[in-house]
Amino acid sequence: EAQVTQNPRYLITVTGKKLTVTCSQNMNHEYMSWYRQDPGLGLRQIYYSMNVEVTDKGDVPEGYKVSRKEKRNFPLILESPSPNQTSLYFCASSLSNTGSSRGYTFGSGTRLTVV
Amino acid sequence: AQSVAQPEDQVNVAEGNPLTVKCTYSVSGNPYLFWYVQYPNRGLQFLLKYITGDNLVKGSYGFEAEFNKSQTSFHLKKPSALVSDSALYFCAVSENTNAGKSTFGDGTTLTVKP
Questions:
Q1: Could you read off the pLDDT of B55-87 as tens digits, one per residue?
Q2: A contact test, residue of B10, B36, B41, B44 with most A CBs within 10 A
Q3: How far apart are CA A42 and CA A51, in angstroms?
């Protein structure tokens, strides 16, 4: 089944403890992106990647890192999480950055709580 | 900077009536426009997009949207609403000079009552 898989689905962590949220797609998509969703703020783009080894900042990149060493994986790294990074995170992918004919495929989300 | 506005937090319609969810945008270049739907505790699902060509775009589940360049709008429409259409709807925009950077609206909650 064609899908974007995020892990974990739920995570509670403490301030300052490094964590990684993984994202993997099995559709050979070039484009991948990370968003956070907060009540009343919609989705805000954190980072995106047009292809392997090509990444760029979205609207809210502070406090996050990403890497794209291989096409299928696009992990989101929080080096020193803080409570204001408590949010619902989504990974998305598409064949191209215009969404291709099927648009972007989103993962099921990762609910992160930083205490 | 690009931006998207969804002026209504909530839209309520009766089943069988037409529905409209509004979206206006601002970009420097030519827009790429998208609509997504999110059901509770789920990820977003693609409904439709406008890249170029015909201003009326047809998408999934009977939804359509009309690109209006002069009014910088991309309203989502459906001729006859279903109770199962009740969900959170997001409009998103990118621009042709930097299509990787996307901006979403704050979302509109659609409630269709029987």
A1: 999 998 999 999 999 999 999 999 999 999 999
A2: B44
A3: 26
